[in-house]
Amino acid sequence: MLLSANLGHGKEEDAHEFLRYAIDTLQSACLKEAGTKSSNSLEEETTLTGLTFGGYLRSKIKCMKCGGKSERHERMMDLTVEIEGDIATLEEALDKFTCTEVLDGEKKCKSYEKAKKKLPLLEAPNVLAIALKAISVW
């Protein structure tokens, strides 16, 4: 079985890309087996792959000028967390991933304003795949 046309001899991929291709291929096989021609959120969530690796993040953004808030749920099949500086454990990396960050120039209030963003885990999957991303400073 061909996992992906994007993976091949002479190409440069990492373990996270391989994992994503593998999960996507499993998901496609599950949807095909179910006889689904077009995927929708409910069908994707209820496949074996969706039930195993699927979870939700809650994206929360608050404008620092007017206090306006937006919130949405984002489907996820894995997490990519950054490991830089003094981060020594997975727990510290996950804490950094879910902490509030300041966005400079978020489109709010009909103009670009500073905003705060938080991305906590809303619903964890049964199997949480985590890719660690090292940040290099040149």
TrEMBL record:
<protein>
    <recommendedName>
        <fullName>USP domain-containing protein</fullName>
    </recommendedName>
</protein>
<dbReference type="GO" id="GO:0016579">
    <property type="term" value="P:protein deubiquitination"/>
</dbReference>
<dbReference type="GO" id="GO:0005829">
    <property type="term" value="C:cytosol"/>
</dbReference>
<dbReference type="GO" id="GO:0005634">
    <property type="term" value="C:nucleus"/>
</dbReference>
<dbReference type="InterPro" id="IPR028889">
    <property type="entry name" value="USP"/>
</dbReference>
<dbReference type="InterPro" id="IPR038765">
    <property type="entry name" value="Papain-like_cys_pep_sf"/>
</dbReference>
<dbReference type="InterPro" id="IPR050164">
    <property type="entry name" value="Peptidase_C19"/>
</dbReference>
<dbReference type="GO" id="GO:0004843">
    <property type="term" value="F:cysteine-type deubiquitinase activity"/>
</dbReference>
<dbReference type="InterPro" id="IPR001394">
    <property type="entry name" value="Peptidase_C19_UCH"/>
</dbReference>
<dbReference type="Pfam" id="PF00443">
    <property type="entry name" value="UCH"/>
</dbReference>
<feature type="domain" description="USP">
    <location>
        <begin position="1"/>
        <end position="138"/>
    </location>
</feature>
